[in-house]
Structures are given as C-alpha cells and as structure tokens.
From TrEMBL:
One GO-annotated biological process of the protein: glutathione metabolic process
MF annotations from Gene Ontology: glutathione transferase activity
Annotated source species: Pristionchus fissidentatus
Domain GST N-terminal: 2-81
Superkingdom of this protein's organism: Eukaryota
Name assigned to this protein: Glutathione S-transferase
Domain GST C-terminal: 83-202
Length: 202
C-alpha cells in the first residue's frame, strides 16, 4: 500500500472531508498540519502544485484540489460508487456543494452574511434536500453505503455550521438534510476518527 501524506492547516474546513474519507476507507495517512508561518514559506516555493491546500502526496506524486483528492481516496477505498453513472451522480452533488463552499467563503472572508451567505444558502440547500428525496437509502447517490458526495456535503456543512451564528436554524425546512448529517456522523467506520480528531476553530 502506498504512503499517503495529507498537508493542510490545523483546521477541519477543506481538509476534514479528506481525513474522514481516509478514516472510513480504513487507510492510515500522515496528517501534516501546517501553521501560517510554515504556509507562507510553502506558498512562496514550488512545494504545492497550485499554491493552495489541501494537497496529498502519494509515492512522491503531489495532488491538489479537494475534490480531486477526495475522489481519488474514494476510488482507492471502494467508496466512489458502484458504477460510472452513480459516480457521476455523486460527483455532480459534490461539485455543486463546492460551489456552495465558494459562496459561503465570500461571506466568511468579507462578512457578507445577509447579502451573500443567506441567498447562497437559500439557493443551494433545496438542491441537496431534493437529491435526498430521490434516495431510498438516505445517501446522496442512492447507494447502499455512502460515497464521497456524502462525505463532502456532510463535512462542508459541519464546517459551515461552526461559523454560522444562526446555526440552530440552519436545518429549518430541510429535514432530510438534517437526517443525513445525523446518519453520516453515526457511520460506524467514522467513530474512532471523530473521537480522536483535534478540536479546531472550524
Ligand atoms: N479549489 C481549491 C481551493 C483551495 C483553497 O483555496 N485553499 C485555501 C485553504 S481552504 C488556501 O490554501 N488558502 C491559503 C492561501 O490561498 O494562501 C480546493 O478545493 O482545494
């Protein structure tokens, strides 16, 4: 088995879905958490492919972009969906969630809660609720066990909920999405990781 090294900040944010995917897939990895001082040095060098984190290194090959990494780990561990079409469905939901992440980052960085975040939430959450309404298993791609779409969406919403001052109202009107989060965080293969992961701001 190759050696896997994940480099990210000491945060959950974009790194945590990858850590959770490794944990669910039963793969050991080096969890390299860099501080801002280390990041400034890395960013100025050619150490990362696109001057951004997360990044994984596998047998000397560096892979950046959260979803590319997540899909890779999902494929390595059998969680990318049982066939191409199901994988594409999971990909499309994860990609849509990445759009939502970009939208809520604008709010987080620039304090645009009302003008940016609330409209983005109103636009995106119904997409995910609707996808779950078509699933008979409670997983986004209607698979017997989860795929990377479930990991990315649940992980991204967990990150967002830790920043949202009105988190208690977040799931109002979205019962399937709330049930999905509970199902995801109760997944048996995730429990050890959840018990052991460090507490971080978000
Ligand atoms: N689309 C990229 C975005 C990566 C990204 O923006 N990463 C942030 C951290 S979440 C980063 O590296 N920020 C440091 C910087 O830009 O200097 C991905 O999903 O991996």
């Amino acid at each position: 088995m190759p050696l896997y090294k994940l480099t990210y900040f000491d945060l959950r944010a974009r790194g945590e879905p990858i850590r959770m995917m490794f944990a669910i897939g039963g793969i050991d990895f080096e969890d390299n958490r860099v501080d801002w001082e280390e990041w400034e040095k890395l960013a100025k060098s050619t150490a990362t492919p696109f001057s951004a984190l997360p990044m994984i290194e596998v047998d000397g090959v560096k892979i950046a972009q959260t979803l590319a990494i997540l899909r890779y780990v999902a494929r390595e561990t059998g969680y990318a969906g049982p066939d191409n079409l199901t994988s594409a469905l999971a990909d499309s939901l994860a990609d849509q969630c990445a759009n939502f992440v970009m939208a809520f980052m604008d709010w987080h960085m620039d304090a645009l809660y009302t003008s940016c975040y609330l409209p983005a939430r109103a636009k995106h959450l119904p997409f995910f609720e609707q996808a779950l309404s078509k699933s008979s298993t409670g997983w986004f791609a209607n698979t017997p066990d989860l795929t990377h779409a479930d990991v990315f969406i649940a992980g991204s919403l967990e990150w967002l909920l830790r920043m949202d001052p009105n988190a208690k109202e977040f799931y109002d009107g979205f019962p399937l999405l709330e049930a999905h989060a509970m199902k995801f965080f109760a997944h048996p293969k995730l429990q050890k990781h959840l018990e052991e992961r460090p507490e971080t701001r978000y």
